[in-house]
Amino acid sequence: MVLGVACHTPKSPNLLTFTASIITMQKPAAPKGTRDFLPVEVQRRNYIFNIIRKAFERYGYQPIETPAMEMLSTLTGKYGEEGDRLIFKILNSGDYLAKADARALNERNAQKLVPSIAEKALRYDLTVPFARFVVNHFNELSFPFKRYQIQPVWRADRPQKGRYREFFQCDADVVGSTSLLYEVEMIQLFDDVLSELGLEQFTVKINNRKILTGIAETAGIAERITDVTVALDKLDKIGADGVKKEWTDRGIPASAMGVLEPLLTMQGGNEQLLSTLDSLLANSETGKAGVSELREVLSHIHELGLKKAKLQVDVTLARGLDYYTGAIFEVVAGGVQIGSICGGGRYDDLTSIFGRDNLPGVGISFGADRIYDVMLALNLFPEKLGRGTRVLFVHFGEAESRYALKQVQTLRAAGVSAEIYPEAVKMGKQFKYANDKNIAYVAMAGEEEIAKNIITLKNMESGNQSEIPADELVAFFEQ
User: Fold this and answer.
1) Phi and psi for 80 in degrees, rounded to 5?
2) Residue 453's closest CA among 415, 404, 409, 410?
3) What are phi and psi of 30, to 5 degrees?
4) Residue pLDDT, tens place only, 122-135
5) 418-420 and 441-444 as β-strands: parallel, antiparallel, unpaired?
6) What's the chain look like in SS3?
7) How many CB atoms lie within 10 A of CB 432?
8) Which residues are paired to 343 by β-bridges?
9) How many C-beta neighbours within 10 Å does residue 38 have?
10) What angle do helix axes 270-280 and 209-218 make, rounded to 10 degrees?
């Protein structure tokens, strides 16, 4: 339509200006860190979601959903100072400046201004909203309560490969039990799901926050555990020297650095690492409890075995979220550089921040978007996922289309995905449509086929054609 208008002599200069502005207008873009998904991409994502969902249900987890937005007060203070900065705030409806903190506004103090202009925020993860959910619905749940949740979350992070501002998490959590059997179960879930998705090499890294707390106690800086873990969590990004510099910048005393630094270079197999930790944490009851818990989990896994996962103790694993209190997990895939694809841990005190004490919990999250990127890089998606419609009927004309529509209706009723091209255009265009959609068969029913009550089917992969009686068409596709 724009070109049509441009070809006519405008009667008004305003029309010319309007037309020119449309022609030069830039294409709208999705916000940075978010993406559109084409049909084949959605099919691949659903393939991942379905395998994860089935595994969760095999292990007895039940589905729930929570709103995309939460009260800002629900989210802040739960992820550490770094996480709080990455929460997407939602401006209050209407005149959001009406109740703004005037002093903070004049001083351009964003941190103090935000609470007065934004009461809500997009959820940063699914775990804190889940804790709020448990407190709100406590009397309706049976404990231990095992839930799974597959929904998007948002983080105001810097977009880069494998890191998005909008992404899906697939979480499984248990609340109401301190049993380490659930830590064992989480490792088995990682192994089951990623093995079924086709990953041949992946490592489940495990640590325990009690060990890190014990090391801070041994170093005489128990109250600085957050400063220790926030810096330690960046080891892969900034290296050992970078972590030591950040510890110094955060005011960790030199006397404590001698105890902390061995964390950065500690090596060996799982049992060797645990023995080293036994010596290092000899004077910390908290630290020794963490080592004991790790040993018990490793013992169970050793007896049960794993399909493809490698289980590795990583004493530098910190997961810089303040709510973790026990075991912590991360999963990395072999053969591709993309960072962790899964994570989780125990959070025995999380619901207490919402007024409900004595509800220990443990949970894990599958990063579906990173798993997608890994599977794409390793060519792990089944080819058949690109196929939606199984058969396309060619449109020859009015009478033929009526005959074809009856066949389409019969196939759909039998659960076979079928469609008819909407117009009687050139055959080449209709066949191109079938190829573009990766449709397996093209069905042709012209005057001759209608007279014989048959359908000519062309296999788009082999090129072979066959004549099928119309009343046997459903049976053909069911085979």
Assistant:
1) 85, 170
2) 404
3) -70, 150
4) 999 998 999 999 99
5) unpaired
6) CHHHHHHCCCCCHHHHHHHHHHHHCCCCCCCCCCCCCCHHHHHHHHHHHHHHHHHHHHCCCEECCCCCEEEHHHHCCCCHHHHHHCCCEECCCCCCCCCCCHHHHHCCCHHHHHHHHCCEEECCCCHHHHHHHHHHCHHHCCCCEEEEEEEEEECCCCCECCECCEEEEEEEEEECCCCCHHHHHHHHHHHHHHHHCCCCCEEEEEEEHHHHHHHHHHCCCHHHHHHHHHHHCCHHHHHHHHHHHHHHHCCCCHHHHHHHCHHHHCCCCHHHHHHHHHHHCCCCHHHHHHHHHHHHHHHHHHHHCCCCEEEEECCCCCCCCCCCCCEEEEEEECCCCCCEEEEEEECCCHHHHHCCCCCCEEEEEEEHHHHHHHHHHCCCCCHHHHCCCCEEECCCCHHHHHHHHHHHHHHHHCCCCEEECCCCCCHHHHHHHHHHCCCCEEEECCHHHHHHCEEEEEECCCCCEEEEEHHHHHHHHHC
7) 11
8) 330, 365
9) 9
10) 30
CA dist 75 and 122 (Å) reads 9
CA 234 to chain centre: 21
pLDDT tens string 343-356:
999 988 778 888 89
| C-alpha to C-alpha distance for 195 and 327, rounded to whole angstroms | 22
List the single range of 6-15, 50-59, 263-272, 439-448 with lowest mean pLDDT: 6-15
CA distance 66 to 86: 20
Look up the pTM and report it.
0.84
Q: Quickly state the pLDDT bin for 274 (edges 50, 70, 90).
A: very high
**What pLDDT score does 45 carry?**
96
Q: Would you tell me the crossing angle of helices 181-196 and 285-304 to the nearest 10 degrees?
A: 50
Contact 127, 171 (CB under 8 A): yes
Name the amino acid, one letter, at 191: D
Q: Which two tokens stand for residue 170?
A: 């697939």
Identify the top-confidence range among 78-87, 152-161, 394-403: 394-403
